[in-house]
Amino acid sequence: LQEDLIRKHEFEVELHNLTLAESTELVAHELGGDSVDSDLSVFMWERTGGNPGHLVELLRFFSDRELLQVRAGVVTAATGIQNLKDIVPDSMAQVALAGLNHLGEEMEGTLVGDAVARLEGARVIESDASLGVGYMFRDDVTRAVAYGTIPESERRGVHARIADALEQLSPENPSRTAAALAHHRERAGQHAVAVRWFERAARLAMRASLERETVYLVEQWNNACAKLDPSELPPVKTQARMTMLKFLAVARQGVPKDTVDEGKHLDQRLWDALDDNARAAIDYWVGDALAGLGRPERARDRLERAYHSGARDHLRSDAARLIARTYSQAHEIDTAR
Question: Do residues 107 and 98 make contact, with C-beta atoms less than 8 angstroms apart?
Answer without folding.
Answer: yes
